[in-house]
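Hi R.,

Here are the chain sequences for the assembly we discussed:
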Amino acid sequence: MVIWSSFKGGIRKVWGNKLLALILFAFKLFFAILLLIPAYYMFARTFSFSPSSINFLKGYDFFLLVDFLSLWSKGISLYWVYFLTIVLISAFSYIFFSGGLWGGLYQSLREGKQKFNGEKFFGDCGRYFGSFLKIFFFIIIVYILAFFFALLIFSLIHTLAGKELSFASHILILIFELLILAILFMWVGMWSNYLRIYRIFFEEKKLIRILKPSLGFIFRNFGKTILLYYLLSVILVGTLIVYLGLNKILHLLPANKFPVIFLFILYQLQSFFRSFYKLVYYSSHMVLFDKLYELK
Amino acid sequence: MKRNFRLIKIFLIFLFILSSSNAWANYLPVASYKIDIRLDDKEKIIYGQEKIFFLNISEKNIDTLYLHLYANAFSSDSTIFVRESKSLKKMMQKEEYRGYLKIKTVKAFSKELSWDVDETRMMIFLFEPLKPGRDIELSLEFELKLPQIISRMGYDKDNFILSEWFPKMAVLEKEGTWKDFPYHYFTEFFSDFGTYDVSITLPLKYIIDGTGYIVAEKKNPDSTKTVTFKAEKVHDFAWCASPDFRIRKTNIDGVEVVFLLLPGDLYKYQRWAEAAEVALKYCNSHFGRYPYSKLVIVDSYIGLVGMAIECPMLITMPPKIPFLPENIRLDEEILIHELVHQWWYGVVASDEAEEAWLDEGFTTYTTRKIMEKEYGEKGNLLDLWGVKISDQNLAKWVYLKYPKLDPIFKPSWEFVNSTSYGVNVYYKASLVLELLENIIGEEKMDTLLKEYYNRYQFKHPKTDDFIKVAEKVTGQKLDSFFKEWLFETKTCDYEVRKIKSEKKEKIYQTTVELRRNGDIIMPVEILIELENGEKIKEKWDGKDKWFELKLETKAKIRSAILDPENKIVLDANVNNNGLSTKPYRWPVFKLFSNYLFWMESVIQWMIDFF
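And here is the predicted structure of the full complex:
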């Protein structure tokens, strides 16, 4: 089946370019550490020599955190500005680096397994940056429109459901609404991937020229594109469940250094896996596109 | 009947004046009302006739009576209420948000009296002074134009909620002083107990309920109905009406609890009923029985100042609390808080305007006790995805925002702003009571509150009265405790500054340096842990600015913790209460590890979106 083979092909491509996954993971780690440094300074200054900090081994002790937040209130206000600035820089940095990631995966698709070439990687970063930046701004608008469309659907649901609902009905409606929002956002995310695919495959720099063909491709092959997306999402959710289970088990262990170390390892494995899997998303869609476009 | 009642009243007044303290006086209806009103639901106007039976319980002759006309606070954009709100001025320029309470006539003994109105204060000039122990019957005719709901009274389309809405006697103290304060933005109320006999005529479509019991309901030929309520031993009459209410009833501990829910909120009934049960049972057993056999809980319509309010025998829940999962207990906290007010406000009716902490602080403290008992000490407010926040965490966090601006004890309108008012009378006051409990013990605290409730039921205790009861029950002098915590803006912060051990032959000279960073003095306990596992408890009176505790120990010191049981809940910084010689790497590493993962997740989500 073309969907399953695209998924497998995607994994193979990324596995053959593990360094790209490592680059993405390193990118996340770099910005996360930038965000962490001021917070860690505040934590360490407050809690390092405090016997009460043992409570943090058992969970988040808000009895201590409340006073911490008050003590560092000015610092935290500044930290928020710093936080938002770093997140914004990371967003634009990612747009830049994603060019190299997509370029690397495309080269692997066309030419098979290749040795990592730093010059080519950064070359692709620069080459696709302008187009990816335009796609980024365009997709933000589409997300906003999708959100308002979702609100319309919600208000319709609420009108149909009526006012006299039980607690369980409210929960069901909430789950249903979240699913609708997730699906709408998934479609928008999928479209952004195909915009990049069209940019890379056809070397088309003008966004306006790839809007219609990319959307057209999705609708013409709606079943396959959406099923691949759902397959990827379902597998991701499955891995998340496994991760949450392991997390829960580690939290049940007695509070000492070994569960803390294992948790740290689990967190970083999870983070690396997400980086790897993100590339599998990109790569699977490229493989599917390649197959379906060839067939056409 | 009226003559017999008069004789009984005179006898009770005689007892009251002879009594050496308020504690021993029987209940006395000081201000009773018979009110007949008609609601014009299209024009949003109420036409009313009112009889007030007022008893002079003071020691002085009174030639002027003072009343509150609270609705006049909404009569223009330049009233004290609106000016102090800062945010309502623009809104109050629109006609639909305005309201007024206009007096048409005032009579006594069939003679018209002269009167004057100054915004929300009304003065009625008597022909002859009202002597101590004598009463007077006033007849008033009034017109109440309802504002769109801003604060405690008004309408939203066809939905009405009214409290403190009619011409209401101010409180006359024993010394002859009137508590006739104007209606300030973050001031609440103060009224005398009495009997209410209220008849409300309104269109048939409305479902109505309020303070007291419905004793009659009559259909009128003009498609209206007249509903008559009777309430005794209350100090306000609040009511609500809406064609949209859905009624649910339950019996809790012998009290009929009536829920008036809006159609979209029916699913909340189970949760609210459980919270009401928890609160009623706790207060009944800890303080004294709820003295009425009915309580109304109203699902309020949208208001501009969305709030929950307490009225005698009636509480409202704030408009449109969104759907929340069961481990976010906002509904429970609010409902329990308002219900507990039936004890601290409804029955023990302290002056909410000048000593607001006596009802709000007590209620916030009691709410916390109930939340902790029912939902656990940690996470009783929020328990979601490993994050546990308790009511106490919230109180402390709010307190630390403005710990030094205002003292707790202050007339409400004198606080620097509404935030400082809220911080002090609700949160800091509740923490002071919790601190008191930690000092005297939980059992003694229960005894104290029970004694206070039983002594001051249907009375108006002051802060001094509570302090006297506290000293009597505990057998301790507590005036300095209350002086520092209620009347001043001092803070408390104790710190372990340094610890060290120096070897001297076979033993260690261990030194623990303690600091008092705040101005409040409290005795503190210190727990010292040595490297051999031994634990030593010491005490410090906390008076000096610093203190060096010197001990000879068999092993080196590992750590020292001040106030190890966290009794001083108002310590401004608990994180400096302990010090160890070696760093606690693993707890900090765990925080670091969690926070790093969250930051990686933030970047991942950003990548996933784009």
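Chain A touches chain B through 69 residues (CB under 8 Å). The radius of gyration of chain A is 23 Å.

Let me know if anything looks off.

Best,
T.
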